Amino acid sequence: MNTTQISSLEEYQKLYKESVDSPEKFWKKEAQQFIWFEDFKDVCQWNFNEPNVKWFLEGKTNITYNCLDRHVLERGDQTAILWEPNDESQSVRSFTYDELLDEVCKCANGLKSLGVVKGDRVILYMPMVPELAIAVLACARIGAVHSVVFAGFSAQALADRVDDASAKLIICSDYNNRGAKTIPVKQVVDDAMDLGCNSVESVLVHKNSSNEVNWSDDTDRWWHDVVNDQSPFCPAEEMDSEDMLFILYTSGSTGKPKGVVHTCGGYMVYTCFSFRNVFQYKEGDVYWCTADIGWITGHSYIVYGPLLAGATTMMFEGVPTYPDAGRFWKICEKHKVNQFYTAPTAIRALMAKGDDFPEQYDLSKIKVLGSVGEPINEEAWRWYDEKIGKGKAPIVDTWWQTETGGIMITPLPGITDTKPTFASYPLPGIQPVLVNAEGEILEENDVEGLLCIKHPWPSVLRTTYGDHQRWKDVYFSMFNGMYFTGDGARRDSEGRIRVIGRVDDVINVSGHRMGTAEVENAINEHPAVIESAVVGFPHPIKGQGIYAYVILQGTGDDNIRKEILDVVTKEIGPIAKPDLIQFVDGLPKTRSGKIMRRILRKIACGDVDKLGDVSTLLNPDVVSNIKLDALKL
Ligand code: PRX
Questions:
Q1: What is the mean pLDDT of residues 58-66?
Q2: Is 96 left (phi over 0), alpha (psi -120 to 50) or beta?
Q3: Cα–Cα separations (whole angstroms), residue 578 to 228, 535, 566
Q4: What are the E-state strand segments in 317-420?
Q5: Atom number of ligand 1 nearest to Cα 499
């Protein structure tokens, strides 16, 4: 019992056609592979103009029942989660499906004992330890809505998310072991509690080190006190298909991050279907995705997709370069990894360390290599193919987004062809189109346009938490009757799609999404900053780097630069720190006062001779100074 696994090109083509000709029939068949406590009455109701999307209407299920309970009879003794610690001298931990179900139920009962009920929001701020996956599933078990916040975000960013979600509970660890560093996670939560978090009733702390933490008897509870003695039985809450499963905050082009909402039924069907097909997972394989569960890739392809499919999924606590740049490859050898899924930024960083590292290890078990999060450049693609896959493991360059819930455009390994830098073909059920600025669909091949999706798929986001209008405005208002991705793409002469990158004010730094407005707001918190403008520029390892133009009160120097970096770290986290800060006297503006980012982007990219006509600007003179100073950076 499982979703369809495509095994040939003919089957892909046939299924794709069926999925477009009669989407409801196609998805009904896939959805029927799951356990529903009550059958769904209708497959899909939708209207992208209103907009409105619902899948598997009135169906009742629980995603954890499908991830765990249903596997226990068939593969209770099979490893579900295999965990590799940061510190190699520590033991590997593993959980069979049987054991994982017990742990999830214990945690779920622990959450209940803290007063968490269906519909409550729970924030998870934890490193990559098994308890993070257990806590995610425990929330889903009782119908609480989890919102995982990447543990690299600052106290302010955490407090913003807790407040937006009005979370009742925060689950965190005491410390995070990352490479040679030990990061005080609980301290960040304490700081966030001082900044807001008024809705929080308790903080559940998982002990992950022998270090001491500050303790508040009013709110703080140890995981081992609350969870360890609970019963390993906890009924799976009956959830409607369209009940919220989780919120995941991601950056947009304007204002504060938005809470992307995914629901139970559609997300379940799509993550399982896409996992099985994209990675061609076979019984007995060991699958490893190196993402952090704080991002959508970790949600869909470390936790839910693999567990729904009954796979063995690996989690790694550490970083790719600790104790050295061979760590990923060493882990692949040690655990005989069959499918390996990572981000181009990691590939580029490891490629820069030389071929000696991968050459020391036996990578012969790898059958499929995956890439996600940003465009992969040809050089990195070829290195990945030759040095890691030895030319024998197809690369699946998977394009998708937090909002899409699952992989949308990708080669299927061994089934469709691969071409460096091309995400290639849509999965069955996905109908991508390229449109021009007027929203007209470009039917021909060999074109470039804006990437939209014209038919809903089961795991499309249902709303942005607390701001339904934003959902409508951002995704469905740009072009009539279509979901707009925010990406630009090219289609080659044979119909393969290559996603070029964002066309809005979002930049992609090491595969992490950053809103330029968000970074500007943080920079502007520095008392000496009058105004700032942030753009992306090509970066050899990160894909894009952050370039900040800053107008100061007084003159700028390296001290102020450092202070600005500190402010950004405090407001958002180290991942948002600009790579370059240029102090300027003014910013190029249109006559209506809008910053001309196009010009700033070109200067940041070094294209100073291609600025075009600047004479219509409100302040054309500032441009020549910015150009001159940029060359000195
Ligand atoms: O610009 C695209 C880029 O990452 C964006 C989505 O980021 P996020 O929501 O953080 O999700 C990342 C993990 C799914 C997209 O709008 N992107 C993602 N994958 C690719 C990509 N760009 C090119 N090729 C990809 N394979």
A1: 98
A2: beta
A3: 43, 10, 11
A4: 339-342, 368-372, 395-398
A5: 23
Rounded CA gap, 631 and 325, in Å?
33
| Ligand 1 neighbours by CB, cut-off 6 Å | 250, 296-297, 372-375, 397-402, 423, 485-487, 499, 501-502, 508, 513
Which of 153, 342, 399, 430 should be mutated for ligand 1, with most atoms under 8 A from CB? 399
* Residues pairing with 95 in the sheet: 81
The answer, yes or no, to whether the previous bond of 235 is cis (omega within 30 of 0) is no
Q: How far is CA 421 from CA 344, 424, 499, 539, in A?
A: 11, 9, 8, 17
Token couple for 390: 């030895």
> DSSP string covering 118-129, please?
TT-EEEEE--SS
Could you report the per-residue pLDDT of 285-310, keeping only the tens digit for each? 999 999 999 999 999 999 999 999 99
Distance of CA 289 to the CA centre of its chain: 12
Residues 6+ apart with CB under 8 A from 588: 595, 596, 599, 600, 614, 617, 619, 620, 622, 623, 626
Instruction: Give the start-end residues of each E strand in 474-511.
Output: 483-491, 497-502, 506-509
Average pLDDT over residues 558-580: 97
Q: What is the DSSP string of 310-322?
A: T-EEEEE-S-TTS
Atom of ligand 1 lying closest to residue 512 CA:
10
* C-alpha closest to that of 622 among 549, 564, 534, 558: 549
Q: What is the pTM of this model?
A: 0.97
Choose among 108, 71, 79, 77: nearest CA to 95: 79
pLDDT tens for each residue of 393-416: 999 999 999 999 999 999 999 999
Q: How far apart are CA 285 and CA 385, in angstroms?
A: 20
Centre of ligand 1 from the C-alpha of residue 400, in Å: 5
Give the Cβ contact number of residue 540 at 10 Å: 11
